[in-house]
């Protein structure tokens, strides 16, 4: 079996992806994503269904004025309506008016749908396909014919399913795309059916899969093995129900595993960046465990794993993460061995050895903290402080001597007041502040006391605050874990605090946040040689 040398990428994030629950793109969102896809090297960008809603019509009007380096902007619609001349169909007229150089037309290839969804005859369905494709070709458009429910249709009536493809081909379709619309096919079935189609259809074939059986990517790759040279999908696999085929995984597998060109090695290094860009615009939390691009997929935690990866990454990594723009991470926890501590310290610019008593003590410290409910995988700033404190590398920027927090109910409103006593070098100061809540009041009081000594604190701000109960069985006496994310003009960092008292847990995380921020800005003693 000979594989194709290259595969064309067809992105439908802006149309099929937008049908996913909780996803809504503004006009500007759609334009930004389209430009990013073009920059990345996607060949076809399906922008929407002109005439179905004003936003999609506005999109096609806007993109006509833009320059596209790699992509062909594609409009989507369906075949003409049953019993209607093609030149009288408003949907078809809207396709021509939108000015898109490529038009994708979806038609029925499953006899069950023809009879029970369209309520028409098999012959009229064939005419609908032929008339629409022919009309658009005469209008000078490149036409992509999407054979909806093709695999279900082929299993029920292979002869008729093929007739629908041949009707599109005879009318001049430039691409014929086989769709697993319900997402229920298996890879071996897809590969066998595409191979049979390839023997009877001369037009270039594409594949469009859905992820209802969690096989969308596998089915797309199986189709490529059988002769498909276009793959349709969405970024991050967004889409209705379980989602569409994840183009990012397809691209990585084609380029790195199958030796098939689609964007090239340099563009591949932007894969993770593209994933996070689309998540951000779509207002979705990135999936840390998403293959190839997720934050966790090259993260190593177990002691045996980290030790082996430190010696040779190939022992537990199927590819070099840098090939897809990702990074290797070593997680530190009670499962971590000394090799993991050494590698994590290296990330922080600290030079330890496995045989150093400091390394053993840091590992002991971490295990003790995790018994108390700490979890450092998401709190690198607190972890770095723990290591540096054990090594004596944290300057005594300040010390919290004591604090008081009072919550009162005044005139129907809850108010919090915090008072902190701080020691900064030889000075001891007391500051108070009111806030919307106890943590807010503590944060303000700390800043008031410290900014006179460290004006850099003014640019540091808290941007996220999370609380989680550690041992819920203890009910109201349970420990809580507080994670605080902070940011300045340079970047962001996360700190952690744990206590049975949510105020104390918050204060621990706040103290670490300010301490780490000062460490970043003012510097700290540096290890110039490994600690042995």
Short description:
The protein is α/β, with parallel strands linked by helices and 532 residues long.
Structural account:
By secondary structure, the protein is an alpha/beta fold. The chain has 3 domains: 8-263, TIM Barrel (Alpha-Beta Barrel), CATH 3.20.20.70; 299-391, no CATH class; 399-522, Alpha-isopropylmalate synthase LeuA, regulatory domain (Double Stranded RNA Binding Domain), CATH 3.30.160.270. Helices cover 39% and strands 20% of the residues. It contains 18 helices and 16 strands. It has helices spanning 27-40, 54-63, 90-98, 111-116, 122-138, 150-156, 158-170, 187-200, 216-225, 247-257, 265-268, 271-281, 303-311, 338-347, 357-371, 380-391, 438-450, 502-522, and strands at 8-11, 44-48, 72-78, 102-108, 142-148, 175-180, 205-209, 230-233, 299-300, 329-330, 399-410, 413-424, 427-435, 461-469, 480-487, 492-499. The protein has an 8-stranded parallel barrel with strand order 1-2-3-4-5-6-7-8, surrounded by 8 helices. The chain has a 3-stranded antiparallel sheet with strand order 11-12-13, with helices on one face. A 3-stranded antiparallel sheet has the order 14-15-16. Helix 6 packs across helix 7 (158-170). It is elongated. The model has no long low-confidence stretch (mean pLDDT 90).
Spell out the key features of this protein:
532 residues; alpha/beta; TIM Barrel; Double Stranded RNA Binding Domain; 3 domains; eight-stranded parallel barrel; three-stranded antiparallel beta sheet; 18 helices; 39% helix
């Amino acid at each position: 079996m000979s594989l194709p040398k290259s595969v064309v990428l067809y992105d439908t994030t802006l149309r099929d992806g937008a049908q996913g629950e909780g996803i809504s793109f503004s006009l500007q969102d759609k334009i930004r994503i389209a430009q990013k896809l073009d920059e990345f090297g996607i060949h076809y960008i399906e922008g929407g269904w002109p005439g179905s809603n004003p936003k999609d019509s506005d999109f096609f009007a806007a993109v006509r004025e833009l320059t596209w380096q790699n992509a062909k902007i594609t409009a989507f619609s369906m075949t003409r309506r049953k019993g209607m001349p093609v030149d009288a169909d408003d949907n078809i007229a809207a396709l021509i008016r939108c000015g898109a150089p490529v038009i994708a037309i979806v038609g029925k290839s499953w006899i069950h749908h023809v009879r029970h969804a369209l309520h028409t005859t098999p012959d009229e369905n064939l005419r609908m396909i032929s008339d629409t494709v022919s009309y658009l070709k005469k209008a000078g458009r490149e036409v992509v014919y999407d054979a909806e429910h093709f695999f279900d249709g082929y299993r029920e009536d292979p002869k008729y399913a093929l007739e629908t493809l041949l009707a599109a081909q005879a009318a001049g379709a430039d691409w014929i795309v086989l769709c697993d619309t319900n997402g229920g096919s298996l890879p071996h079935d897809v590969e066998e059916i595409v191979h049979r189609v390839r023997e009877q259809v001369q037009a270039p074939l594409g594949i469009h899969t859905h992820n209802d059986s969690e096989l969308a990517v596998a089915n797309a790759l199986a189709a490529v093995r059988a002769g498909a040279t276009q793959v349709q999908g969405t970024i991050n696999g967004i889409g209705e129900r379980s989602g569409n085929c994840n183009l990012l995984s397809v691209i990585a597998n084609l380029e790195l595993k199958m030796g098939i060109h689609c964007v090239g090695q340099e563009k591949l290094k932007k894969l993770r960046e593209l994933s996070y860009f689309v998540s951000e615009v779509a207002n979705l939390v990135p999936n840390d465990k998403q293959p190839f691009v997720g934050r966790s997929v090259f993260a190593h935690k177990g002691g045996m794993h980290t030790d082996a990866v430190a010696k040779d990454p190939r022992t537990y990594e199927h590819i070099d993460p840098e090939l897809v723009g990702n990074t290797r991470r070593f997680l530190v926890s009670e499962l971590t061995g000394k090799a993991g501590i050494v590698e994590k310290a290296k990330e922080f610019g600290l030079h330890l050895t496995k045989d150093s008593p400091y390394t053993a003590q840091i590992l002991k410290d971490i295990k003790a903290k995790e018994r108390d409910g700490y979890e450092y995988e998401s709190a690198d700033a607190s972890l770095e402080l723990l290591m540096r404190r054990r090594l004596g590398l944290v300057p005594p920027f300040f010390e919290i001597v004591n604090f008081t927090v009072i919550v009162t109910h005044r005139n129907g409103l809850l108010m919090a007041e915090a008072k902190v006593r701080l020691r900064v070098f030889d000075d001891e100061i007391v500051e108070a502040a009111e806030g919307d809540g106890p943590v807010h009041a503590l944060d303000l009081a700390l800043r008031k006391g410290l900014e006179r000594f460290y004006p850099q604190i003014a640019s540091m701000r808290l941007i996220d605050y999370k609380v989680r109960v550690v041992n819920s069985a203890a009910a109201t006496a349970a420990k809580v874990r507080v994670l605080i994310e902070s940011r300045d003009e340079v970047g962001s960092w996360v700190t952690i605090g744990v206590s049975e008292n949510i105020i104390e847990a918050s204060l621990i995380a706040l103290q670490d946040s300010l301490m780490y921020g000062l460490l970043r800005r003012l510097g700290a003693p540096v290890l110039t040689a490994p600690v042995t």
